[in-house]
């Protein structure tokens, strides 16, 4: 069942945003194309991270708790973090990402680049973070859970 995006106005009216967001997604795709759209959405995700900063933490377990608390506050799902020390990669399994119908590739992942910017900025703000790391959606990701890879950019 699709998430309903709504909020109450000052007079108590509930406003639904689904049609607007679908039209916005289609228009951005038509005018900008995928690379420019993805850059824009990454920037929006980074701005979201700056508006919802995480406290500094010193363990992966605590970081996951803080990320999930922030995601719950905005209704953007939840994350599970898995560190592969040998490969120096942090995998982020994100479930419950808001969808704009089937927009995106794979279908339903139009907002995934916003997640990339969100996680990239949150993780870069943590103590001891390395500069130059990127969060990117894994090609096989789709469905209810998407997986992002946080590591040095692939050559």
Please provide a written account of the structure.
- The chain is α+β, with helices and mostly antiparallel strands.
- The protein has a single domain, classed as 2-Layer Sandwich (Alpha-Beta Plaits), CATH 3.30.70.
- Helix content is 39%, strand content 21%.
- A 4-stranded antiparallel sheet has the order 3-4-6-5.
- Strand 1 (6-8) and strand 2 form a beta hairpin.
- The longest helix has 18 residues, at 34-51.
- 25% of the residues are buried.
Proportion of β residues? Answer: 15-25%
Q: Give the neighbour order of strands across the main sheet.
A: 3-4-6-5
Distance between the termini: 39 Å
- How do the helices and strands follow one another from N- to C-terminus? EEHHHEEHEE
Number of strands: 6
CATH architecture: 2-Layer Sandwich
Low-confidence stretches: 1-5
* Tally of distinct domains: 1
* Class of secondary structure makeup: alpha+beta
- What is the C-alpha radius of gyration, as a whole number of Å? 16 Å
Please describe the biggest sheet, giving its number of strands, its sense, and whether it closes into a barrel.
4 strands, antiparallel
The top-level CATH class is Alpha Beta
Average residue-wise pLDDT:
88
What is the CATH topology classification name?
Alpha-Beta Plaits
Binned, the helix content reads 25-40%
What general form does the structure show? globular
Number of continuous helical runs = 4
How are the SSEs placed, and which strands pair?
Layout: E1 6-8, E2 14-16, H1 18-32, H2 34-51, H3 60-74, E3 78-84, E4 89-95, H4 112-124, E5 133-137, E6 145-152
Antiparallel strand pairs: 1-2, 3-4, 4-6, 5-6
Helix pairs in contact: 2-4
